[in-house]
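Final report, results section. Input specification for complex C-07:
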Amino acid sequence: MSTTSVAHLFRVVVWGAAAGVAIAGGYLYLRTPSQSRFELPVRTAIGGPFTLTTVEGKPFSSEMLKGRPYALFFGFTNCPDVCPTTLLEMSNALTALGPDGDRLNVLFVTVDPEHDTAEHLKTYLSAFDQRIIGLTGSADVIASVARAYHVFYEKVPTSSGYTMNHTAAVFLMDRKGALAGTTSHEESETVQHDKLRRLLSR
Amino acid sequence: MTIPALGQEYSAGTVKITQLWTREVPPSSKVAGGYMTITNRGSEPDTLVGGSLVGAGGFEVHQMETVGGQMKMRELKPGLVINPGETIVLKPGASHAMFLDLKTPPKVGQVIFAKAGKVDVEYKVEPLGARAPTDRGPVSKSDTAHEHH
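Structure output:
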């Protein structure tokens, strides 16, 4: 292919893409007069069925959550800040909720299944409220659950090991398994507890 | 001379280090964050390049931030630069020292600066999940300070 035709092809592709963006933008704009142009008009589904492994090495199916609301978040045990903080705050929340806390399932899913075996997770979670359900699984299963929750995670190599980037949100799921909202360690305990109380009353 | 109200103060070269703290870690967790306040009183920048901790296999300088709900962490190489006159607070959710391969709970160690060199330090160990050192006193979350009459 000559340089000229490459340049031509490049122009066609660029203008084609620009036109596509313009058409899509116009479509979104026209379709959602009441919303911001930058918001997606369709609410993306979060969550879905899964089968993971508990700290006892037993299968845990999302079917077991039916009829009860749950809070689910992702992390790993070699996490210095966000994960232990979130686990501690969820433990505090379960205590603050009193007997109602028993109606809320709190799930912690590892994004580092290679390292976080069931046994390892069990030891780690012994520092927190014993109602918190630790879940692991094969790398493929974890990846599919993370996809279902639109959760991002990646291993970051460092000079003496690795760390992980991951989505820090706690997903609040209602009794039907639909997303009711999110919270995170960045919110105050009062806000977190209010959100969990509201989730339980839905 | 001003004596810090609470906590140990360390000086080396043009660098002053105060409010060193860390947190208890859950069992089987091999990592912890090391937090401190570093002030550079000199006219040249200095860099926190690393350090060591008794009972830990590694010490790294990390940058952490939450972007769009994602916790992102990376190692700072060659380290954390403290410019002349600048004070940097290493704290949860921001830049921090990362202790790796912990064999015993964190407590004492060294921090190393490019110019100021090695400084022996001791960390105050706060409970799991603490957001700030307890000896800092109550942190006001409101701007409406009480008037004293």
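DSSP finds five helices and nine strands in chain A. Helices of chain A lie at 3-31, 82-96, 118-125, 139-148, 189-201. This concludes the modelling results for the funded period.
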